[in-house]
Design goal:
Elements lengths: L5 H17 L5 H9 L7 H13 L1 H11 L10 H15 L4 H14 L6 H13 L10 H5 L3 H10 L4 H8 L5 E5 L6 H10 L4 E2 L7 E4 L16 E3 L6 H6 L6 E4 L6 H9 L5 E6 L2 H13 L8 E5 L14 E7 L14 H4 L2 H19 L2 E11 L8 H10 L3 E3 L6 H4 L3 E3 L2 E4 L9 E8 L7
Helix pairs in contact: 1-2, 1-3, 1-5, 1-6, 3-5, 4-5, 5-6, 5-7, 6-7, 9-10
The structure holds S-adenosylmethionine.
The site of S-adenosylmethionine has 18 residues, from α13 and β6.
Length: 451
């Protein structure tokens, strides 16, 4: 029997990752991490490309599979459907030559030890090409929009004029953004280093530390990454720290901190006398905050204190002195970052949104009592659903006499990219290459002025 090629093994690994997500309900990042450990370094980019691309095109591909398969494979052989999905993605979304895509995918059947399906995989992929199914107009809305109905329904309700553009942005590959650690060097100095290392980039006025790379690279290959000169962080995620600290701030709470992108940014920008509490309910994720701060040289004793605890139970971690700045980067559906996490379309359910809005409203109410009069709380999500954004803030302001919209605004360049939503601002995904984020700044009236 001929030896199995590396390319066939790669297709089989991609199918296993897709299967873990689509059938077993596991996260794409976790499934990828597992397979990456068993994959040669030079094969990793293609493995990621096939796994991400196939998951990203899931709803379109499923419609083709329904048309192509007269009978589904037996339950224990469902991995064959995932392999076919990887095959169809190669034939439509990639530049891989058709003959290589078909033959390597057919060969992957052997890697998966499902030899009896070799003929079926070959026949299905060839029929797809022969009948030019890729050009046929999809018959159902999930295939057409390449999104589950519950997401497209919500988007059409919340953003009637933008829903199609949002879904197109969700299906595009996200650019890589960097944040320069200006405690170490100026942005201009870092740009020099990037140019010398051969990286092309763009800047966005209004985001002073952000750099958008033309081509993504592994973080470890960035000049000075290990030494803490730079972080990887979307430009939209760089707004909250600058916004919250625009007028200073000396006692800061980062209430949902892990993995620490915004914690680090807050510490980079805050004065040396500022003190920060970083809270996250997930202790493992909090370890990532610690590692981030150490890498960036922000771990000085006394400046930041990390607490593995629930933010809505401050009895366990709060010292009783109110904060003058609170960042609530709330747990959310992540519907604004689907382009970075396409598995959200497969794994999340509509009912999750209602559960999340309960958590968001509770955190907001509880944390408000920790804010000093005159202090500012910035509520942030990476969601585009109104239920998690404008609706939460509107209800909270209506029932909280001492809450008022803060006068702080992002600068005009950034402001022009945002949609105003009641007391908050929404960035839609894909706007100037940014992720989809919602921000609402609220300040606490002094008691004598409370309505
Ligand atoms: C959107 S992520 C935060 C991202 C982070 N701010 C950053 O910039 O890297 C939301 C975080 O909220 C945490 N979380 C969820 N419920 C929480 C709670 N009740 N108290 C504290 N953290 C919570 C999750 O573990 C998750 O790490």
């Amino acid at each position: 029997m001929p030896r199995i090629s590396r390319s066939a093994r790669l297709r089989a690994s991609a199918a296993e990752i897709v299967h873990a997500v689509a059938v077993e309900g596991r996260s794409l990042d976790a499934a990828l991490r597992e397979r990456e450990a068993a994959t040669a370094a030079e094969d990793l980019p293609l493995l990621r490309y096939l796994a991400f691309g196939t998951v990203r095109q899931h709803f379109r591909i499923q419609a083709w599979l329904r048309a192509l398969l007269e009978r589904r494979p037996k339950r224990r052989d469902r991995i064959i459907e995932s392999l076919l999905a990887v095959g169809l993605y190669q034939l439509t979304g990639s530049r891989i030559p058709e003959h290589a895509a078909v033959s390597e995918t057919v060969e992957a059947v052997r890697v998966l030890r499902r030899q009896p399906y070799k003929g079926l995989v070959n026949a299905v992929l060839r029929r797809f090409l022969r009948e030019r199914l890729a050009d046929a107009e999809p018959t159902d809305d999930e295939a057409r929009s390449n999104h589950p109905a519950w997401i497209s329904d919500r988007l059409r309700r919340d953003w009637p004029d933008d829903a199609d553009a949002i879904m197109a942005a969700n299906d595009a590959r996200a650019p890589m953004w960097l944040r320069v650690n200006t405690r170490r060097q100026s942005v201009a100095a870092y740009l020099e280093r990037l140019s010398t290392a051969g990286h092309a980039f763009a800047l966005l006025p209004g985001l002073p530390q952000a750099i958008r790379l033309d081509e993504p690279v592994p973080a470890s290959e960035l000049p000075g990454f290990a030494a803490g000169d730079v972080s990887v962080q979307d430009g939209a995620a760089q707004l909250p720290a600058a916004w919250l600290l625009a007028d200073g701030g000396s006692k800061i709470l980062d209430a949902c901190a892990a993995p620490g992108g915004k914690t680090a940014h807050l510490l980079e920008l805050a004065g040396t006398d500022a003190r920060l509490d970083a809270v996250d309910v997930d202790p493992e994720r909090l370890d990532a905050v610690r590692a981030n701060l150490e890498r960036l040289g922000l771990g000085e004793a006394g400046r930041a204190t990390l607490h593995a605890a629930s933010a809505d139970e401050p009895e366990g971690w709060w010292d009783g002195t109110p904060y003058d700045r609170i960042l609530l980067d709330a747990p959310c559906s992540a519907s604004g970052v689907i382009r970075r996490h396409p598995d959200i379309k497969l794994l999340r359910r509509d009912s999750d949104v209602a559960a999340l809005t309960g958590v968001q409203a509770r955190l907001l109410r509880r944390l408000w009592s920790l804010l000093s009069p005159g202090g500012v709380l910035l509520y942030v999500t990476c969601s585009v659903f109104d239920a998690e954004n404008g609706s939460i803030i509107k209800r909270f302001v209506a029932e909280t006499p001492d809450a008022e919209p803060a006068q702080l605004l992002p600068n005009n360049n950034i402001r022009a990219l945002m949609r105003e939503r009641g007391t908050g601002y929404q960035l839609l995904p894909g706007t100037r290459g940014l992720d989809g984020f919602f921000y609402a700044a609220l300040s606490k009236r002094h008691p004598e002025r409370a309505a």
